[in-house]
Design goal:
InterPro entries: RmlC-like_jellyroll, RmlC_Cupin_sf. By secondary structure, the chain is of the alpha+beta class. Helix content is about 15%, strand content about 30%. The relative contact order is 0.18.
Amino acid sequence: MSKTNLINETFEKGEGILRLIPNFIPRRFGRPGKRLCLHPDDYFSLGISRGAIKERWFSSITPAINGELAAEDEGLSYVAPTDDVKDKFLFKDAVEELGKDLIGEELMKEYGTWPMFAKFFDFETPLFHHLHLDDTAASRVGALGKPEAYYFPYQLNNYLGNFPVSYFGFAPDVSIDEVKARLLDYEERDIRITELSRAYRLQLGTGWYTPPGVLHAPGSLLTYEPQWNSDVNSVFENITAGDVYDYEFLVENCPEDKQRDIDYIMSLMDWEENVRINYKKKYFRPPVVCDHSNKQFIEKWISYANEYIGAKELTIQPKQTVLVKDKVAFGCVIIQGHGKFGVYDAEAAIMLRYGQISADEYFVSEKKAKEGIMISNESSHEPMVILKHFGPNHPDMPKEPCK
């Protein structure tokens, strides 16, 4: 069967819903938190030189920028048309083939593709203080800017890691010259740049939004992260939790002729937002319960109040079958419970082997989302919990931070 026919047949059989295959990503830095529901023997499945698996990506058409050893399709999600992994095809190919029938006319007209993805990132230790480029800076290296959001689900955080605290930006009384002076010593000493920052203890069941250009050093909770289609950053911290990050991490997404230009590197920051006095008030994201919630299910906005990405958490009570509607296409992952998701048998992952098919991740077309998905929680005791990620076009997403 041709790929075109396979894609269309799979879409039709799934009644507008695609089942996706787990998409695990190794990283050569940090220590794994081992909360990704991956078998303990499989964290180095791509080899010691690649580092441990520390992320899982969802609904992704974006390749991971992950060094010379990364495969061409690393970071790209695959669709499972059958229970045989050999039959898989790229989610990116499905987006290109199905177009507006999958992601909707609005996104196709504005972006020509599915514009975001989500991930779990799972580090036992804190990440380095870094920023993501805005569109202007990213375009100079052939990429897109990267806004992102965070949510800390209870279900995947029985263990909080070594440092459940995140740094954001810099203290309001820090000067830009102080930051510059630290970066000038990047190759000479431990610059301890988070001494200039401010930190917040992370709260389960809440999240944050981080715009491009703002420094952040994420804490050690497993984090659900909806984000724009990009994987570009600049690392402003050279030693984190004992790990050393060489100068390449600071400048790998700078044009070659700017990699020794300290003023250009400094320009990657949105300075005003980095030292914003009311940073938490603007960027902290407590959940917002949707008005249509009832005794059968509760739905909350967990990523909102930005121009790029949205996310919800859907909780269906035991022994309940509900019709859940949305106005736009979305990807999702089940993190607790089992039952039915449309025509599919569905269940949260408990322990996956690397490369195997699961029943916890799906992508829902815009038409199907509007018609509604019949979801059944077949447990007698536990709720069924689903995280749902959207592009920028959900009309019901709250426009302002929760007060």
